[in-house]
Design a protein that fits this description.
The complex is a heterodimer of chains A (360) and B (588). Chain A has 360 residues and is an alpha/beta fold. Chain A has helices at residues 2-32, 46-55, 66-79, 92-104, 118-126, 198-211, 214-221, 230-239, 249-258, 288-299, 301-311, 338-357, and strands spanning 37-38, 41-42, 57-62, 84-89, 112-114, 130-131, 146-147, 151-164, 189-191, 225-226, 244-248, 263-266, 272-282, 334-335. Chain B has 588 residues and is an all-alpha fold. The chains are: A alpha/beta (360), B mainly alpha (588).
Chain lengths: 360, 588
C-alpha cells in the first residue's frame, strides 16, 4: 500500500516536474524569440519571426561587395541571432548567370537577391524564379523605386563627378557635367561604358537626354579611359593617375570617407542620375521565412540606415538621413530613366556608345 | 638534339603489351570515363553553347536555337582585329622577352662562372610563387605613370622619363618577367644535360665565346627553347589577370579580358563569350599541337646517369655585369614587387604623391596584419584553400599517375585519346571553363555543388595537362627493363608498381604534388562560378577585396599566400629525394 502511494506520489511529482519544465521551457522559448519590431518599426509578426528562426539561415546573393554586405547583415544577425546570413557577391550579370544555372538545375541556393539592374530583375520575374512579397514599409518607397509585390530598392546609387583634390585645385575643379567637355580634361577622365550595368547606362542616358545627342560625341572626343567597373575608376582617381572621373558613388565612398583618399565629390546641380538596387525573394527558396524577414529588415529604417552608413548609398526613404560626407537626398536634383525607358532604349544607347567610343 | 639525349641511350622505352588483358581494358575504360566527365563534358558543353542562342545551363539544350550568330558577332565585330592583334602581339613580345631572360639566366646559372650562380639558380624560379594577379597589382603600385612609387622617386631626383605599365610595352614587360621562369626551367635542364665536348671543340677551333654560344649552345638547346616558347605563348594568350589589371589604364583590350567582359555585360552574352573562348581554344590548341610535334618522337631516357658535368664558361671581366643582370632580374620580378606589397600592407593611407608622403613614419603600423588575419572570412578562405590544395594534390596525383602510366607505359587502345583529352584544358582559359564546370556538373546527381569537392574536381580537370606531364616525364625516365625484370621474376603488376615504378618515379610524383598545390592555391578564375559562401577560397576572397579597393588587406593576403607557398615548396624540396632534371610545364 505504502509503495503504491509512494509510486503514485512519484508519478504526480514527475508530472508536476514535467508541467513546470514545459512551462519554463515554453516561457524561455518565448523569451528567446527576437522581437519583430526593430528601431521602432514593426517588420514582422511573431509568427514570421518564429518561422524565420526555425529556418535558422538565409542565403543572400548580392551585387554589393561581400565585405560591405557582411558588415550590413551583421546588424540583422544582431537583431535576430537565431538566423545566420551567408553572402555570395558578384557583379550583376555574373550573379544573374549563376542564378539561372542553379535554377535550371533545380538547385536554387539564393533565398534573397540584391541586383543592380531592373532589366535583369524583370527577366528573373519572367522566368518565374522570383516570388511575391509585401514588406510592411512599402509606402515609404516612392513609385520609381519599387515594383509593388516584386521588388523594392535596397539602395540608390548616385552618379556624379569626382576629382583628385591634390591634382585639381581652385577654379580648375569641375562643377557640372558640361565641364567634363573642357579640352583640358582630354585623356584625363576615367569612367565606364554603359554595358557594365544599369548604373553606367543611366548616366549615359541622362547625359544624352539632358544635353542632347552631341554630348556623347563630344565626350568621346575627350578620349576618356573606360574601365569595366567603377571600383578601378575610384582607385585611379584616388591615386592621381586620372585627375577626374565620372562614377557611381558606391565605388568611391569607401575610399573617400573610409580611407581618407584625396577625392572630392561633385553632385552636379543640373542633375544627378541614379539607379536602383532591387531586393527580391526567390521562389522555391529553402528558407522562405528567414528570407522574408531579412528583406523586411533591409527595407526598414534600421536596415536602410545601416546600408547608408556602410556603403555611402542613398536610401529611397526620405526618413533615412544621407551618409556622412554626402549631401541630403532632398538637396539633389535626381533623375532615373525608369524600367520602361531602359527596356525601350537599352540596346540603342549601347550601340550608339560603342560606335562613338570605338568599344564593342 | 633533345634535352638529355646527348651521348646516352636513345632507345625508346618499350610499352607493356596488355592490349588483350581485361583489367587493362577496364582500367583505360574507367580512365576515359573519368576524363569524359571531368574534361570532355565541360569543354563540350561550352563548345555546344557557342552554337546556341540560349546557354546550355544544367545540360538543358534547346536544339531549335542552333546558330552561327555568336561567331558572326564575335569575329565580324569591328574591334575584333585590334583585339586579336593586340593579344597575339603582346603574347609574342612577352614570349620573346621571357625567352631572352629565361635562357640568359639559365646560361648564367648553369654554364657560366658568374658569382653567386647557385643562389641565382635557386632563386630563378621564385617569380612563379608570385601569382600573376599579385605581380600585376604590385607593378601597378610601382610603375603607374603618376602615382607609381618608382616614378615618384624618379621625379624627386629629377630623372628624365618615366615608367608606364599601362602601355603595350609595360604589359609585355610584366608578361616577360613572370613567365621567364618557365623558359628557365626548360633551358636550364637542357643546358645541364648538354655535352660540353661540343662547346670545347668550338673553343679549340678558335670560336669566340659569343660565337660558341650562338652557333653551338643555342642550337643544342633549341628544342627546349621552342617548346618552352610555345608553352609561354599559350599561357600568355589566355592569361586574364595581368591584362585585366594593367590593360584598362591604356584602353588596351585583350581576348581573355573580353571573355570576362562579355559575361559581365547586361544582359550577359554568355554564348558569345563561349564562341570567343572557342576562338582562343583553336589558337591555343593549334600551338599545343605544334608543341607536341616539336617534342614528338623524342626520347627522354636519362636514368642511365649523366655525362661529365660541363665546365663552366669563364666570363672574365663580364662576371660582375652578368651577375648584376641576373640578380637584377630577381630584384625586378620578386624583391621590388614584394617590397611594394610589404609597404602597402604596413601603410595606413594608401595615397601618396611625393617621397615625403611615402616615407612619413606616422603612416606605418602593423594593425592591418592583425585585422586581416583575424577576419573570419579570410580565415575560412585560407582553410578552404588549404583543403582544396590538399584534395587536388591527393586526388589529382592518383588520377594523373594512372593516366600517365597508361599513356607512357602501355599499348592499351585509347591511350592516345586519353593523352589528347588530358592536354585539352591547357588550351582553355580558366574563366570560361569555370562556366563549363558549372553547367555540366550542377545537375549531376552526386551532390557536389556547393561543396569544396566541385572546386577540387574542377582543379583536377584543369591541371591535368601539367599533372599528367609532370608524372609522365618521370615515368619516361625510368628504363622499361627495370619493370620487365620485375615481371620476369614473377612479380605481379601491383608489386611492380609498388616496388619498382613508384620509388623510381617518386621525385616526379613529389614534384607534381608540390606543383598541384601551388597551382591550386594560386588559381582564381575557375572557382569564380563554383564557390559558395561556405566554400570561398583564398584567391577569390583576395580578388573580391581587390575589386572593392581594399588594397592593404589584399597586400597582407598576398604576403600570406607567398609565405605559405614558399614554406610548402621549401619543405617539399627538403623532403624529396635527389631532384629530377626534366622540366615540366609550370613546374617550380
Amino acid at each position: 500500500m505504502s509503495s503504491q502511494i509512494r509510486s503514485r506520489g512519484n508519478r504526480l511529482a514527475a508530472l508536476f516536474m514535467l508541467a513546470m519544465w514545459s512551462l519554463c521551457g515554453g516561457l524561455a522559448g518565448a523569451q528567446s524569440l527576437p522581437s519583430g519590431t526593430v528601431g521602432g518599426e514593426k517588420i514582422a509578426t511573431p509568427e514570421l519571426v518564429k518561422a524565420a528562426c526555425a529556418d535558422g539561415q538565409v542565403q543572400l546573393y548580392t551585387i554589393q561587395g561581400s565585405e560591405d554586405e557582411r558588415a550590413i547583415v551583421n546588424s540583422f544577425e544582431s537583431s535576430f541571432p537565431c538566423i545566420k546570413v551567408s553572402v555570395i557577391s558578384a557583379v550583376g550579370p555574373r550573379l544573374y548567370e549563376r542564378i539561372l544555372g542553379e535554377s535550371q538545375a533545380g538547385k536554387t541556393q539564393a533565398d534573397v537577391i540584391i541586383m543592380s539592374d531592373e532589366s535583369l530583375v524583370k527577366s528573373l520575374i519572367d522566368k518565374k524564379i522570383l516570388r511575391h512579397f509585401n514588406p510592411p514599409e512599402t509606402l515609404k518607397y516612392p513609385e520609381a523605386t519599387k515594383l509593388p509585390g516584386w521588388w523594392y530598392t535596397a539602395a540608390l546609387s548616385m552618379m556624379y563627378i569626382i576629382y583628385n583634390d591634390q591634382a585639381v585645385t581652385g577654379s580648375d575643379a569641375p562643377s557640372g557635367w558640361l565641364d567634363m567637355l573642357d579640352p583640358k580634361w582630354k585623356g584625363k577622365i576615367a569612367t565606364a561604358p554603359p554595358t557594365i550595368g544599369g548604373t553606367a547606362w543611366s548616366l549615359m542616358a541622362f547625359l544624352k537626354m539632358k544635353y542632347g545627342d552631341s554630348y556623347l560625341k563630344r565626350l568621346a572626343a575627350q578620349q576618356p579611359k573606360l574601365y569595366t567597373a567603377y571600383q578601378p575608376v575610384a582607385q585611379e582617381v584616388a591615386r592621381g593617375e586620372f585627375p577626374v572621373g565620372m562614377i557611381g558613388g558606391l565605388a568611391e565612398y569607401p575610399l573617400r570617407v573610409g580611407q581618407g583618399a584625396p577625392i572630392h565629390a561633385v553632385f552636379p546641380k543640373d542633375g544627378v542620375p541614379y539607379t536602383v538596387y532591387p531586393i527580391v525573394l526567390t521562389a522555391g527558396s529553402a528558407h522562405p521565412h528567414a528570407a522574408e524577414l531579412l528583406a523586411n529588415w533591409y527595407l526598414s529604417k534600421a536596415g536602410q540606415s545601416r546600408e547608408v552608413e556602410v556603403r555611402g548609398a542613398y536610401s529611397a526613404r526620405y526618413d533615412v538621413p544621407s551618409a556622412k560626407g554626402n549631401p541630403p537626398l532632398a538637396s539633389l536634383h535626381i533623375w532615373y530613366p525608369g524600367g520602361k525607358m531602359m527596356a525601350e532604349q537599352h540596346d540603342a544607347l549601347i550601340n550608339e556608345f560603342a560606335t562613338l567610343f570605338g568599344t564593342k | 638534339m633533345p634535352p638529355g639525349s646527348s651521348r646516352r641511350t636513345i632507345r625508346k622505352p618499350k610499352r607493356h603489351n596488355v592490349r588483350r588483358s581485361l583489367p587493362g581494358r577496364l582500367t583505360i575504360g574507367a580512365l576515359l570515363a573519368i576524363a569524359a566527365v571531368l574534361i570532355v563534358l565541360p569543354v563540350g558543353i561550352l563548345l555546344l553553347g557557342s552554337f546556341l542562342i540560349e546557354p546550355p545551363r544544367a545540360l538543358h539544350v534547346d536544339w531549335s536555337g542552333l546558330t552561327l550568330r555568336n561567331y558572326a558577332e564575335v569575329l565580324f565585330d569591328r574591334t575584333f582585329p585590334a583585339l586579336l592583334g593586340l593579344s597575339l602581339g603582346a603574347a609574342c613580345v612577352g614570349t620573346a622577352g621571357a625567352l631572352v631572360i629565361g635562357t640568359g639566366l639559365a646560361w648564367l646559372a648553369v654554364r657560366s662562372d658568374v658569382p653567386g650562380r647557385r643562389i641565382l639558380e635557386a632563386s630563378a624560379v621564385t617569380p612563379l610563387f608570385v601569382s600573376p594577379l599579385i605581380g600585376a597589382f604590385a607593378w601597378e603600385i610601382l610603375g603607374s605613370p603618376q602615382s607609381g612609387i618608382l616614378n615618384i622617386m624618379a621625379r624627386e631626383i629629377h630623372l628624365p622619363g618615366s615608367i608606364n605599365v599601362y602601355t603595350f610595352g609595360g604589359i609585355c614587360f610584366v608578361f616577360a618577367i613572370y613567365y621567364a621562369p618557365y623558359v628557365f626551367l626548360f633551358s636550364a635542364a637542357s643546358l645541364r644535360n648538354m655535352d660540353p665536348v661540343l662547346e670545347e671543340a668550338a673553343a679549340m677551333c678558335g670560336a669566340s665565346r659569343l660565337r660558341s654560344v650562338l652557333d653551338v649552345t643555342l642550337p643544342l638547346i633549341a628544342p627546349a627553347l621552342v617548346s618552352s616558347a610555345l608553352l609561354v605563348f599559350v599561357l600568355l594568350i589566355e592569361l586574364f589577370s595581368i591584362p585585366a589589371v594593367l590593360g584598362p589604364g591604356g584602353n588596351l583590350n585583350f581576348l581573355s579580358v573580353e571573355i570576362w567582359n562579355l559575361i559581365g555585360v547586361t544582359p550577359p552574352k554568355v554564348n558569345e563569350a563561349s564562341a570567343l573562348g572557342v576562338v582562343l581554344l583553336v589558337i591555343t590548341a593549334t600551338l599545343v599541337l605544334v608543341q607536341r610535334r616539336v617534342l614528338g618522337g623524342r626520347s627522354f631516357v636519362t636514368v642511365a646517369g649523366k655525362g661529365l658535368r660541363p665546365t663552366p664558361v669563364k666570363l672574365g671581366g663580364a662576371r660582375l655585369p652578368c651577375a648584376l643582370a641576373g640578380f637584377g632580374y630577381i630584384a625586378v620580378a620578386v624583391v621590388l614587387p614584394y617590397a611594394a606589397l610589404v609597404f602597402i600592407a604596413l601603410r595606413k593611407s594608401l595615397y601618396f604623391s611625393n617621397v615625403a608622403a611615402i616615407v612619413d613614419s606616422r603612416q606605418f603600423g602593423v594593425g592591418q596584419f592583425a585585422q586581416t588575419l583575424s577576419d573570419p572570412v579570410v580565415q575560412t578562405a585560407l582553410r578552404n584553400s588549404m583543403l582544396v590544395g590538399a584534395g587536388t594534390m591527393i586526388f589529382g596525383c592518383l588520377l594523373y599517375f594512372a593516366m600517365a602510366y597508361v599513356i607512357q607505359r602501355t599499348k592499351l587502345p585509347g591511350r592516345t585519346l586519353l593523352d589528347a583529352i588530358t592536354t585539352l584544358p591547357i588550351a582553355i582559359p580558366g574563366l570560361i571553363i569555370g562556366l563549363g564546370f558549372l553547367w555540366a556538373w550542377i545537375s549531376l546527381p552526386i551532390g557536389i555543388y556547393g561543396t569544396l569537392w566541385i572546386i577540387i574536381l574542377a582543379y583536377v580537370a584543369q591541371f591535368s595537362p601539367q599533372g599528367v606531364r609532370a608524372i609522365g616525364a618521370s615515368l619516361i625516365q625510368i628504363h622499361p627493363e627495370l619493370e620487365e625484370s620485375s615481371r620476369v621474376s614473377g612479380a605481379t603488376m601491383t608489386a611492380t608498381l609498388r616496388y619498382i615504378v613508384m620509388p623510381l618515379a617518386w621525385p616526379g610524383i613529389f614534384s607534381a604534388l608540390v606543383l598541384l598545390f601551388v597551382l591550386s592555391f594560386r588559381e582564381l578564375a575557375t572557382a569564380l562560378f563554383l564557390y559558395t559562401s561556405n566554400t570561398i577560397i583564398f584567391s577569390v576572397a583576395m580578388f573580391d577585396l581587390w575589386s572593392r579597393g581594399s588594397t592593404s588587406t589584399v597586400a597582407v593576403m598576398a604576403l600570406v599566400q607567398a609565405a605559405i607557398l614558399l614554406v610548402f615548396v621549401a619543405a617539399g624540396q627538403a623532403a624529396r629525394r635527389p631532384p629530377i632534371d626534366q622540366p615540366v610545364k609550370g613546374m617550380p
